[in-house]
Amino acid sequence: MEEDSGFSMLNDDIVLVVFAKLEDDPRHWARVACVCTRFSSLIRHFCWKTKCSQTLPSLLSDSPATCASLLKLAVCCPGLRHAGIAADRDASKNPKTCRKPHLARGNWDLRREQGCKLLARQFRDDCLYLCDWPGCVHPHKKRKYMLFRGIFKDFKTTRVWTSLDGDKRKKLPVECAFCTSRYTWDLHSAFCLRRGFGYQIDGEPVVRAYVCENGHVSGAWTDVPLFS
Hints:
By secondary structure, this protein is an alpha+beta fold. The protein has helices at 12-20, 26-33, 37-55, 64-75, 79-82, 112-118, 159-166; strands at 76-77, 102-103, 110-111, 128-131, 137-140, 143-152, 185-186, 207-211, 216-222. This is F-box domain-containing protein.
């Protein structure tokens, strides 16, 4: 515990200098934040907010919830269930398959170029930022799924949102992996994803993605790589 260590003798400014040495990988901050409430508060309100303001200023708002969601988005793989692959009822059949969110692998950067390549042509002007590929790889039913995550900037002003809301697309009872939203939409069945990705022999889509009302995206692709 931090209270029983030498860190309890240091003021916040010195502790923040130490934490700054760990900024190359946000997963380090996620682990440190689990040590105690003091560390968690410093990571959320100083380290991560400063990092976002430097690297993702267009996505950062004054809402603490937004900053917390961006931190989770940066470090957290959504898991197969949130990516629309593994149902809860499958858990007993294959307990080794990861379904819940967990610390992700790969670069944490959010990039719009990758999001543009994911969307159908009529939605290319929407700002979808995706974490660096390929993210985490998970096996399930003799396939390997490459999971990704991302966020729409100003989601309620995008053409994707207009399409989902205007067509009254059915929500799915799968909660978001990054915020408190209890439902998501399937971007594949709503024809928001680029058509060229195609399907597997058994009819399964090569790429799938789900979005919540706050614009957080969880998805997966398999077999055919998205980007060269």
